[in-house]
Specification:
Distance between the termini: 33 Å
Number of strands: 8
Structural class: alpha+beta
Helix content: 25-40%
Largest sheet: 8 strands, mixed
Number of domains: 1
Shape: globular
Number of helices: 7
């Protein structure tokens, strides 16, 4: 696997967002699937910079796949994080977005590309201040411009299998202190993303928003 990385830093009020993007080569699918890692930092009173949040997104260049007659299914299948979105979003006959997306979103989808929000993590003492939503909104402004749809899988991180993410960061996140009521946590998270215009698409709790 070959990776190409690029860094970009944005200042947002008292926050700093650093974007690191990488593309992977897999069966000739280079440059079609881009992973975007985001770190969110703030400057403390003593002047020290502190990491307070992380996010990860995937940009899928469906338009390029159409131009080269490559497989749309294979593009999604490159990464385990993007694979579940294929059956929810894509018509296997046409390789285009399913028609029910336009009906749900109430918009005509003219762009082919897709942005997937994979993770959004904010440390406990900074939650409840709309920092996560502010960062996500900025990420969408940066990367969703050429996309038809933005999608995410609504999943409360406290129910994630142990060992999936960095252990030191996981301890700081204190996910074990969050509610163990799965139904209530999921409803709260759907409302959270709904405030940015995301709508529930499927029983798998995939949510979508119009990127235009």
């Amino acid at each position: 696997m070959h990776c190409v990385k690029a860094n970009k830093v944005e200042l947002l009020h008292d926050l700093s967002l650093k974007f690191t993007s990488s593309t992977s080569t897999w069966d000739g699918m280079d440059d079609y699937s881009t992973c975007i890692e985001v770190t969110v930092t703030c400057v403390e009173e003593k002047g020290n910079e502190r990491l307070i949040g992380r996010a990860r997104l995937f940009y899928l260049d469906l338009a390029a796949v159409f131009d080269t007659n490559d497989s749309v299914h294979d593009l999604f299948d490159i990464r385990p994080e993007t694979a579940p979105f294929y059956s929810a979003l894509i018509d296997p006959e046409t390789g285009d977005f399913k028609s029910n997306l336009e009906k749900l979103l109430g918009e005509y989808i003219c762009e082919l590309n897709l942005l997937i929000v994979d993770r959004l993590e904010i440390l406990p003492e900074f939650r409840g201040k709309k920092i996560g939503l502010t960062c996500l909104r900025w990420c969408l402004q940066q990367y969703a411009r050429a996309c038809g749809v933005v999608a995410l899988k609504c999943f409360p991180l406290q129910f994630e299998v142990a060992g999936v993410s960095d252990s030191m960061w996981s301890r700081e996140m204190q996910l074990g202190k969050l509610s163990r009521d799965r139904k209530r946590s999921l409803a709260k998270l759907k409302k959270y993303y709904g405030s940015l215009g995301f709508k529930v698409l499927s029983r798998d709790d995939i949510m979508v928003a119009f990127a235009g």
